[in-house]
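User: Please fill in residues for this 200-position structure.
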Protein backbone atom coordinates (compact mmCIF):
# COMPACT_ATOMS: atom_id res chain seq x y z
CA UNK A 1 0.00 0.00 0.00
CA UNK A 2 1.41 3.37 -1.04
CA UNK A 3 2.22 5.81 1.73
CA UNK A 4 1.60 9.55 1.65
CA UNK A 5 5.35 10.07 1.24
CA UNK A 6 5.35 7.82 -1.86
CA UNK A 7 2.48 9.89 -3.25
CA UNK A 8 4.37 13.16 -2.68
CA UNK A 9 7.53 11.77 -4.28
CA UNK A 10 5.50 10.60 -7.28
CA UNK A 11 4.04 14.08 -7.78
CA UNK A 12 7.46 15.70 -7.37
CA UNK A 13 8.92 13.25 -9.87
CA UNK A 14 6.23 13.98 -12.45
CA UNK A 15 6.78 17.74 -12.04
CA UNK A 16 10.53 17.22 -12.51
CA UNK A 17 9.87 15.27 -15.72
CA UNK A 18 7.67 18.11 -16.97
CA UNK A 19 10.33 20.80 -16.44
CA UNK A 20 12.53 19.88 -19.48
CA UNK A 21 9.43 19.28 -21.61
CA UNK A 22 8.21 22.78 -20.77
CA UNK A 23 11.58 24.21 -21.79
CA UNK A 24 11.64 22.24 -25.07
CA UNK A 25 8.07 23.03 -26.04
CA UNK A 26 8.36 26.73 -25.36
CA UNK A 27 11.90 27.34 -26.58
CA UNK A 28 10.75 29.94 -29.13
CA UNK A 29 8.12 31.93 -27.27
CA UNK A 30 7.68 35.64 -27.88
CA UNK A 31 6.24 37.77 -25.09
CA UNK A 32 4.57 41.12 -25.66
CA UNK A 33 4.99 42.97 -22.35
CA UNK A 34 2.48 45.81 -22.26
CA UNK A 35 2.62 48.71 -19.81
CA UNK A 36 1.65 52.38 -19.85
CA UNK A 37 4.06 54.93 -21.36
CA UNK A 38 2.88 57.65 -18.97
CA UNK A 39 1.81 56.17 -15.66
CA UNK A 40 1.31 57.41 -12.14
CA UNK A 41 2.08 54.09 -10.46
CA UNK A 42 4.32 53.90 -7.42
CA UNK A 43 8.05 54.66 -7.70
CA UNK A 44 9.92 51.57 -8.81
CA UNK A 45 7.22 50.39 -11.22
CA UNK A 46 9.57 50.68 -14.19
CA UNK A 47 12.17 48.56 -12.37
CA UNK A 48 9.49 45.94 -11.62
CA UNK A 49 8.68 45.84 -15.32
CA UNK A 50 12.37 45.38 -16.14
CA UNK A 51 12.60 42.60 -13.54
CA UNK A 52 9.61 40.86 -15.12
CA UNK A 53 11.25 41.13 -18.53
CA UNK A 54 14.47 39.67 -17.10
CA UNK A 55 12.53 36.78 -15.55
CA UNK A 56 10.98 35.84 -18.90
CA UNK A 57 14.36 36.13 -20.65
CA UNK A 58 16.62 34.45 -18.09
CA UNK A 59 14.34 31.86 -16.47
CA UNK A 60 12.31 30.79 -19.49
CA UNK A 61 14.56 31.95 -22.34
CA UNK A 62 11.63 33.75 -23.95
CA UNK A 63 12.06 36.75 -26.25
CA UNK A 64 10.39 39.81 -24.76
CA UNK A 65 9.06 42.76 -26.73
CA UNK A 66 8.08 45.69 -24.47
CA UNK A 67 5.21 47.89 -25.62
CA UNK A 68 4.30 51.10 -23.81
CA UNK A 69 0.74 52.26 -24.44
CA UNK A 70 0.73 55.97 -25.26
CA UNK A 71 -1.70 58.19 -23.37
CA UNK A 72 -2.97 59.74 -26.63
CA UNK A 73 -5.29 57.53 -28.72
CA UNK A 74 -4.40 54.60 -26.45
CA UNK A 75 -6.98 52.09 -27.68
CA UNK A 76 -6.10 52.45 -31.36
CA UNK A 77 -2.36 52.34 -30.62
CA UNK A 78 -2.72 49.25 -28.42
CA UNK A 79 -4.85 47.40 -30.99
CA UNK A 80 -2.31 48.21 -33.71
CA UNK A 81 0.62 47.16 -31.52
CA UNK A 82 -0.93 43.81 -30.61
CA UNK A 83 -1.96 43.13 -34.22
CA UNK A 84 1.58 43.81 -35.46
CA UNK A 85 3.03 41.53 -32.77
CA UNK A 86 0.69 38.67 -33.67
CA UNK A 87 1.31 39.12 -37.40
CA UNK A 88 5.08 39.19 -36.92
CA UNK A 89 5.52 36.27 -34.54
CA UNK A 90 2.98 33.67 -35.53
CA UNK A 91 0.29 31.52 -34.02
CA UNK A 92 -1.21 31.46 -30.55
CA UNK A 93 0.89 28.56 -29.29
CA UNK A 94 4.14 30.52 -29.15
CA UNK A 95 2.84 33.94 -28.12
CA UNK A 96 2.25 35.39 -24.67
CA UNK A 97 0.72 38.80 -24.16
CA UNK A 98 1.13 40.26 -20.67
CA UNK A 99 -0.47 43.47 -19.49
CA UNK A 100 1.61 44.38 -16.48
CA UNK A 101 -0.09 46.51 -13.88
CA UNK A 102 0.98 47.12 -10.31
CA UNK A 103 1.84 44.30 -7.92
CA UNK A 104 1.65 44.77 -4.17
CA UNK A 105 4.88 44.79 -2.14
CA UNK A 106 3.93 41.44 -0.54
CA UNK A 107 3.65 39.86 -3.98
CA UNK A 108 7.02 41.21 -5.10
CA UNK A 109 8.79 40.25 -1.87
CA UNK A 110 7.38 36.72 -2.12
CA UNK A 111 8.40 36.44 -5.78
CA UNK A 112 11.95 37.64 -5.05
CA UNK A 113 12.43 35.49 -1.93
CA UNK A 114 12.81 38.31 0.60
CA UNK A 115 11.99 36.43 3.83
CA UNK A 116 12.43 39.30 6.31
CA UNK A 117 10.42 41.69 4.16
CA UNK A 118 7.61 39.16 3.72
CA UNK A 119 7.38 38.75 7.51
CA UNK A 120 7.25 42.51 7.98
CA UNK A 121 4.66 43.03 5.25
CA UNK A 122 2.40 40.32 6.68
CA UNK A 123 2.00 42.53 9.77
CA UNK A 124 0.15 45.16 7.75
CA UNK A 125 -1.07 43.39 4.60
CA UNK A 126 -4.02 41.06 4.14
CA UNK A 127 -2.23 37.76 3.42
CA UNK A 128 -4.87 36.70 0.88
CA UNK A 129 -4.79 39.87 -1.22
CA UNK A 130 -4.67 39.10 -4.96
CA UNK A 131 -2.94 40.61 -7.96
CA UNK A 132 -4.78 41.69 -11.09
CA UNK A 133 -4.59 38.08 -12.37
CA UNK A 134 -5.79 36.69 -9.05
CA UNK A 135 -2.43 35.41 -7.79
CA UNK A 136 -1.74 35.77 -4.07
CA UNK A 137 1.60 35.69 -2.23
CA UNK A 138 1.74 31.86 -2.23
CA UNK A 139 1.49 31.83 -6.03
CA UNK A 140 4.37 34.31 -6.24
CA UNK A 141 6.54 32.38 -3.75
CA UNK A 142 6.06 29.26 -5.90
CA UNK A 143 6.70 31.20 -9.10
CA UNK A 144 10.01 32.36 -7.63
CA UNK A 145 10.80 28.90 -6.25
CA UNK A 146 11.37 30.16 -2.70
CA UNK A 147 10.78 27.42 -0.13
CA UNK A 148 11.54 29.61 2.91
CA UNK A 149 8.96 32.19 1.80
CA UNK A 150 6.41 29.46 1.12
CA UNK A 151 6.84 28.19 4.68
CA UNK A 152 6.38 31.69 6.11
CA UNK A 153 3.21 32.26 4.09
CA UNK A 154 1.71 28.90 4.99
CA UNK A 155 2.42 29.57 8.69
CA UNK A 156 0.39 32.78 8.25
CA UNK A 157 -2.47 30.80 6.64
CA UNK A 158 -2.32 32.52 3.27
CA UNK A 159 -5.23 30.96 1.32
CA UNK A 160 -4.40 28.22 -1.18
CA UNK A 161 -6.97 29.29 -3.75
CA UNK A 162 -6.89 29.02 -7.51
CA UNK A 163 -6.04 32.21 -9.36
CA UNK A 164 -8.62 33.97 -11.48
CA UNK A 165 -6.26 33.50 -14.45
CA UNK A 166 -6.85 29.98 -15.87
CA UNK A 167 -7.53 28.62 -12.35
CA UNK A 168 -3.82 28.21 -11.66
CA UNK A 169 -3.06 26.89 -8.17
CA UNK A 170 0.15 27.06 -6.18
CA UNK A 171 0.63 23.34 -6.88
CA UNK A 172 0.71 24.04 -10.62
CA UNK A 173 3.49 26.56 -9.99
CA UNK A 174 5.53 24.11 -7.90
CA UNK A 175 7.43 23.24 -11.10
CA UNK A 176 9.45 26.40 -10.51
CA UNK A 177 11.09 25.10 -7.33
CA UNK A 178 14.67 23.84 -7.63
CA UNK A 179 14.76 20.03 -7.86
CA UNK A 180 16.20 19.76 -4.34
CA UNK A 181 13.20 21.63 -2.86
CA UNK A 182 10.43 20.29 -5.08
CA UNK A 183 9.28 17.29 -3.01
CA UNK A 184 9.15 19.33 0.21
CA UNK A 185 7.28 22.18 -1.50
CA UNK A 186 4.69 19.75 -2.87
CA UNK A 187 4.37 18.12 0.56
CA UNK A 188 3.82 21.49 2.29
CA UNK A 189 1.17 22.52 -0.25
CA UNK A 190 -0.70 19.21 -0.05
CA UNK A 191 -0.58 19.15 3.75
CA UNK A 192 -2.12 22.63 3.83
CA UNK A 193 -4.94 21.53 1.54
CA UNK A 194 -3.87 22.51 -1.97
CA UNK A 195 -6.12 20.70 -4.42
CA UNK A 196 -4.90 17.88 -6.63
CA UNK A 197 -8.12 18.07 -8.63
CA UNK A 198 -7.78 21.59 -10.05
CA UNK A 199 -7.08 21.79 -13.77
CA UNK A 200 -6.11 24.78 -15.89
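Assistant: Residues filled in for all 200 positions:
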Amino acid sequence: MATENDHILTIAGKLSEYRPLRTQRYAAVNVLLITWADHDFKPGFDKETDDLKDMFCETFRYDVWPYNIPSKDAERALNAGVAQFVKRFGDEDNLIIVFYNELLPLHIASWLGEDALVIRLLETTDPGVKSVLGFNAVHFACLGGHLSVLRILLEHNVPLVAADFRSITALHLAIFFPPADLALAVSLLLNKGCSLEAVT
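For context: The chain has a mean pLDDT of 80.
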